[in-house]
From TrEMBL:
UniProt membrane topology term: Multi-pass membrane protein
Signal sequence extent: none
Pfam families (UniProt xref): DoxX
InterPro entries linked: DoxX (IPR032808), DoxX-like_oxidoreductase (IPR051907)
Localization, UniProt: Cell membrane
Record-given protein name: DoxX family protein
GO cellular component labels: plasma membrane
Domain of life of the organism encoding this protein: Bacteria
UniProt similarity note: Belongs to the DoxX family.
Residue ranges crossing the lipid bilayer per the database entry: 12-35, 55-76, 83-102, 122-139
Length: 154
């Protein structure tokens, strides 16, 4: 079967571990960032369009909901495809807004370029999770009707 036609149900043991690793490796970044936004909510809102007293508050609340909600969903493997897609779109927006190295002051170009390229890597991993699903080691696989659960170690 061609690789692009495989789904979470058709993946074997190595693929299940790779998808688990991808989810577990990516989720903390979004969870940490979401918690940081909660802890400094007014500062976060102030950095967004509309500022701390306006539309920035709504944008900051949305960012917190996306990062904490989708980060948790990825970690657990519950609605992982949808969470990865939302985080994919969120990461594109955040990257263009905050890591636009082409418009950064000279002292910030290298740092912003690194962050921009890091986010491209995140986009690749999120695209794989959105495409292949959470894998066999996920809450979703355990509760899916007719699921056989995680593959056996043989």
């Amino acid at each position: 079967m061609p690789t692009s036609a495989r789904s979470a149900e058709a993946t074997g043991l190595p693929d299940a571990f790779v998808l688990l690793f991808a989810r577990v490796a990516i989720a903390p970044l979004f969870l940490y960032s979401g918690i940081g936004k909660v802890m400094a909510f007014a500062v976060t809102a102030g950095r967004l369009p509309g500022g701390a007293d306006g539309f920035g508050m709504l944008l900051a609340a949305g960012a917190v909901a996306v990062e904490l909600g989708c980060g948790t969903a990825l970690l657990l493997g519950l609605f992982a495809r949808q969470a990865a897609l939302v985080l994919f779109l969120f990461t594109i927006a955040a990257t263009l807004m905050f890591h636009n190295f082409w418009a950064a002051p000279e002292a910030q170009v290298v740092v912003q370029t690194i962050n921009f390229l890091k986010n491209l890597g995140l986009l690749g991993a999120l695209a794989l999770i959105a495409s292949f699903g959470p894998g066999a080691y996920a809450v979703q696989a355990a509760i899916k009707p007719g699921s056989k659960g995680a593959p056996e170690l043989t």
